[in-house]
UniProtKB/TrEMBL annotation:
Catalyzed reactions per annotation: L-aspartate + 2-oxoglutarate = oxaloacetate + L-glutamate
EC class (word): transferase
Entry protein name: aspartate transaminase
EC number: 2.6.1.1
SUPFAM superfamilies: PLP-dependent transferases (SSF53383)
Length: 392
């Protein structure tokens, strides 16, 4: 018996991008102390009041099957928040609650693409994007962005690949680069989508982590509400990564079909988690800013530390919980640099190549440890880069 080609080709026949992370975890399991700057996991845990509300709901009996589209209370809360933040009228009929943002990405591509369709995405990209597209039997096609543009996509580059494609996946604020797409960038993307009749899948899970500029949902642009599927999540905004609660926002007809899809796949999200999400969202923007505050502080630390040296280039970190560092002056690839840094100093970062060829010669640093430890790790990383550059 053989597995389906879909299962055997999810990573495209190569690495899934997590090799350094897995190596670091094996070192930790063997007893080696490793400073992990790899994944987007908050160093704070889910706030106690959210967990207390989750416990209250579970003990109150909300442990059976919840309605597949999501509870009315959570769908209404997400819709109201979206209306307030974007100005686009949104109701519960525009919202499907999903088991996290990853399930939402999969469902959105299942809605947009038939087997064999081309699905576009931007490089650098979050590591699961191409596998998600292959998972619905579509064909992933990367469109490179440029470090010299701070990884802002060019509409002309997207248009050059758009003929015959069915969808385009974007992510702003961006993981891994920290770039926040400007209005001009998003207007250019929107025009390409209209001109080539593309579905736009907009991953906005970092919308509460904006340090420069402003977050603009492309669903708010003229002519885009009917062709945009927005991905959201409680994971990053409320430090609820393990709770697996996300959503898709889109046209009513699309959401109706996605509810049917969810009935045959995930069958919904536990009710007690949805109740806790209602509670968390009810804490308002001040709580979201509190969750985001450590990353803003650490961004300032990075600007200060890296501003004092000339080997590493810091891509402007406008949002999200990551830094993209240009280490090409060392003469090393991102893979070689990350592995050598881990072996020599037991500091784990993600190679830029984990996120696509456009990030070659870079590494991604997650700002997810305490301030003092973060500064120490950055200084060590910078010293390591300077020594390698001198030896190059």
């Amino acid at each position: 018996m053989s597995l389906s080609q879909r299962m055997q080709t999810l990573t495209g026949g190569g690495s899934d991008g997590w090799d350094v992370f897995i190596k670091a975890r094996k070192m930790i399991a063997a007893g080696t102390a490793v400073t992990e700057l790899t994944i987007g996991e908050h160093d704070i845990r889910t706030a106690a009041p959210i967990l207390q509300d989750m416990h209250r709901s579970a003990m109150g009996g909300h442990t059976g099957y919840a309605m597949v589209p999501g509870t009315d209370a959570l769908r209404d809360m997400v819709a109201a928040r979206t209306t307030e933040r974007t100005g686009v009228p949104t109701t519960r009929d525009n919202v499907l609650i999903t088991p996290g943002g990853q399930a939402a990405l999969f469902a959105a591509h299942a809605a947009a693409c038939d087997p064999g369709d081309t699905a576009l995405y931007l490089d650098p990209y979050y590591a699961t994007y191409p596998g998600t597209i292959r998972g619905v039997s579509a064909v992933p096609q990367a469109i490179a962005t440029r470090a010299e543009d701070a990884f802002q996509p060019r509409a002309a580059d997207i248009a050059a690949h758009a003929e015959g494609a069915r969808s385009l996946l974007i992510n702003s604020p961006n993981n891994p680069t920290g770039t926040v797409y400007s209005r001009a960038t998003l207007e250019g993307i929107a025009q390409v989508c209209v001109d080539h009749d593309l579905w736009l899948i907009s991953d906005e899970v970092y919308d509460t982590q904006v340090w420069e500029g402003a977050h603009l949902s492309p669903r708010a642009l003229p002519g885009m509400a009917e062709r945009t599927l927005v991905i959201g999540s409680m994971s990053k905004s409320h430090a609820m990564t393990g709770s697996r609660c996300g959503w898709i926002i889109g046209p009513e007809e699309v959401i109706a079909h996605l509810i049917t899809f969810a009935t045959h796949t995930t069958y919904g999200v536990p009710g007690f988690i949805q109740d806790a999400s209602v509670f968390a969202l009810g804490q308002g923007p001040a709580f979201e800013a509190e969750v985001a505050a450590p990353f803003l502080r650490r961004r300032a630390i990075a600007q200060r530390v890296l501003g004092a040296q000339n080997t590493i280039g810091l891509i402007p970190a406008q949002g999200a919980m990551y830094l993209m560092l240009d280490i090409r002056a060392t003469g090393m690839s991102g893979d070689d640099f990350a592995n050598a840094l881990l072996d020599r100093h037991h500091i784990a970062v993600m190679p830029g190549e984990s996120f696509g060829s456009a990030a070659a010669g870079h590494v991604r640093v997650a700002m997810t440890i305490d301030d003092a430890g973060f500064e120490t790790a950055l200084r060590t990383l910078a010293g390591f880069a300077e020594a390698r550059a001198r030896a190059a």
